[in-house]
Structure to design on (99 residues):
């Protein structure tokens, strides 16, 4: 029997939550919409912003997508859930139609 039953717990825990940690940081990135915000914008910031705005429009019309967005916001599901092919195809189609 191992003398330390918690040995390795932190490593397993932090590995398991990596997908959930992106959501809070993604929310902070929205500050870069304002030109006077200091800091380095991510290289793909504008593309991600367009995707985010289109995703919100899809969610406004689709209760299932709205629920998934809420679950991601509240860290119930990882942000990768929003890149599901069925959701992403609708979002990119809306982006293309808006271009």
């Amino acid at each position: 029997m191992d003398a330390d039953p918690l040995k390795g717990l932190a490593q397993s825990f932090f590995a398991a939550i990596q997908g959930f940690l992106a959501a809070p940081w993604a929310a902070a990135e929205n500050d870069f919409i304002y030109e006077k915000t200091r800091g380095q914008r991510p290289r793909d910031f504008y593309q991600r912003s367009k995707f985010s705005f289109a995703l919100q429009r899809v969610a406004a019309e689709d209760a299932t997508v709205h629920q998934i967005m809420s679950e991601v916001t509240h860290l119930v599901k990882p942000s990768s859930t929003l890149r599901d092919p069925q959701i992403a195809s609708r979002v990119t189609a809306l982006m293309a139609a808006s271009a």
Notes: The radius of gyration is 17 Å.
